[in-house]
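Office hours follow-up: a student asked to see two folded examples consecutively, so here they are.
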Amino acid sequence: MTTDLQTELRKSTGWLIALSILLILLGIAAIFMPGVASVTFTLVLAWILLISGIIRTKSAWQTTGGYGYRHPGRNSKYFLPIVHCLLSIAYRHR
């Protein structure tokens, strides 16, 4: 191995260990505070769904091909991303 590769591996291993310790501590905190963990998980999941729905809607608007679900007589490529956004908003405000 070259020294550059060894240095990069050591740096990456250090970050991996730090992330592992952080995840262990967060897991322990989640065990002792399940209410906070549930609310946090719900909010994070809702934001992920909302952002991915917005990205999918933008992508559908830019797509010019005939991909995706097609309803007879309509181009329904906008339907699923919009439903995705609406469900994530409804999930967040539950």
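And the second, which I mentioned at the end of office hours:
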Amino acid sequence: MDLRDIEWAAGDHYPIQLTIKNKSTGEKINLTGYTFTMSVSKEDSGSPIIFSVNGVVDPDQTNNTGELSFTPQESDTSDLSPGRYYYRIAMFDTSSNKRTIRKGVFQIV
């Protein structure tokens, strides 16, 4: 699992872009058929969830292999007080198996 922190101004609205790679080989993973969700919570345990965002996989997985984005809406963060929150990104395969692939601090400034 990858650990990375995100700094976010309350009320911002822009895509968080990621490239998913195989941890062992470093090769980009073709994301065709996978779905992703990013959830943000006040606790590191992951609950209760304050908001969640569905990931958008780049449809051109030939030229943009492994690329996806999450775009929180302005309303998702506009009422959040500055401070430390936590996010998790879950990947679901074609059989709906869930795997947490990234988590970290979601710092509201």
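Two things to take away from it. Residues 2-108 form a domain with the Immunoglobulin-like fold (CATH 2.60.40.10). Helices lie at 74-77.
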